[in-house]
């Protein structure tokens, strides 16, 4: 029988190894199938605790039905961010070795699907003697290396960077796996699904997708591209090595502080409002100089 003491006690066995893995690629690229197979293999071969969080399974279907081919923004990107907030509640519980509580503001259906996702993978269980919104961590989630695989398209760099920031915040490992499946293959597979996406949505994602670029972005250095799901088995050793490196080398906040400032500065420089603000400041400064010159005459 599971108890709170046995669950919490597992957290005292030494330093935790905890990492976030972003699994990205076009819709119907085979990400979910790959993630499930990878999770099973890592549990059996490596003895790790693995949690696969598939966004399509956790985000309410009503939201997915309303999605279209437009780039995410505003309300369209709030739900994935909300899910990332739920994930942070779980991470806080793991890092502290304490129970997990429900966030005060949440989408109930989405939170329940997230909880079910964690329960089905033996990461948490309900505390029968506590409030219904409290959950205890399973011993395996506290005593073994824990890898959380986030399965979504993540086709913009900014989407993946938010996960990286979360890893930085709690000094977790971070890595990326990109399934580079041909567009035509994705379209063919998508057409065979019961709830297929509009073909134009996949075409648009194919044009806009920003693949991991370790040469340009230092924070993406721990990334691996798998050219096709058919090559996944051949790349299994590379994948395991990538994940092990992430687990053993957490992102350090202090060490990466300069890097974050540079990245934030780059993002800020491309922000339209920031550019407008800079222009206005120059105009005001020039006007004041001209006024001062006239006054001195």
From TrEMBL:
<dbReference type="InterPro" id="IPR020028">
    <property type="entry name" value="L-seryl-tRNA_Sec_kinase_euk"/>
</dbReference>
<dbReference type="GO" id="GO:0005524">
    <property type="term" value="F:ATP binding"/>
</dbReference>
<protein>
    <submittedName>
        <fullName>Phosphoseryl-tRNA kinase</fullName>
    </submittedName>
</protein>
<keyword id="KW-0067">ATP-binding</keyword>
<dbReference type="GO" id="GO:0000049">
    <property type="term" value="F:tRNA binding"/>
</dbReference>
<dbReference type="GO" id="GO:0001514">
    <property type="term" value="P:selenocysteine incorporation"/>
</dbReference>
<dbReference type="InterPro" id="IPR052648">
    <property type="entry name" value="Ser-tRNA(Sec)_kinase"/>
</dbReference>
<keyword id="KW-0547">Nucleotide-binding</keyword>
<dbReference type="GO" id="GO:0043915">
    <property type="term" value="F:L-seryl-tRNA(Sec) kinase activity"/>
</dbReference>
<dbReference type="InterPro" id="IPR013641">
    <property type="entry name" value="KTI12/PSTK"/>
</dbReference>
<dbReference type="Pfam" id="PF08433">
    <property type="entry name" value="KTI12"/>
</dbReference>
<dbReference type="InterPro" id="IPR027417">
    <property type="entry name" value="P-loop_NTPase"/>
</dbReference>
């Amino acid at each position: 029988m599971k108890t709170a003491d046995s669950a919490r006690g597992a957290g005292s066995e030494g330093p935790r190894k905890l990492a976030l893995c972003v699994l990205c690629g076009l819709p119907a690229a085979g990400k979910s199938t790959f993630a499930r197979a990878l999770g099973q293999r890592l549990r059996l071969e490596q003895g790790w605790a693995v949690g696969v969080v598939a966004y399509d399974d956790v985000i309410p279907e009503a939201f997915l039905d309303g999605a279209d081919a437009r780039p995410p923004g505003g309300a369209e990107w709030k739900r994935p961010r909300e899910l990332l907030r739920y994930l942070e509640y779980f991470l806080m519980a793991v890092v502290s070795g304490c129970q997990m509580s429900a966030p005060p503001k949440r989408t109930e259906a989405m939170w329940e699907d997230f909880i079910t996702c964690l329960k089905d993978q033996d990461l948490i269980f309900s505390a029968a003697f506590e409030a219904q919104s409290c959950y205890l961590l399973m011993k395996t989630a506290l005593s073994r290396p824990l890898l959380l695989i986030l399965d979504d398209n993540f086709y913009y760099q900014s989407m993946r960077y938010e996960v990286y920031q979360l890893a930085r915040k709690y000094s977790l490992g971070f890595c990326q796996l990109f399934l580079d499946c041909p567009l035509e293959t994705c379209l063919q597979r998508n057409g065979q699904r019961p709830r297929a996406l509009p073909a134009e949505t996949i075409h648009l994602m194919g044009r806009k997708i920003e693949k991991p670029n370790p040469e340009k972005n230092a924070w993406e250095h721990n990334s691996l591209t798998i050219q096709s799901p058919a090559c996944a088995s051949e790349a299994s050793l590379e994948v395991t090595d990538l994940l092990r490196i992430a687990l053993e080398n957490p992102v350090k906040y202090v060490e990466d502080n300069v890097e974050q400032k540079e990245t934030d500065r780059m993002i800020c420089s491309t922000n339209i409002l920031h550019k407008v603000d800079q222009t206005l400041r120059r105009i005001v400064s020039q006007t004041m100089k001209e006024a001062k010159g006239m006054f001195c005459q």
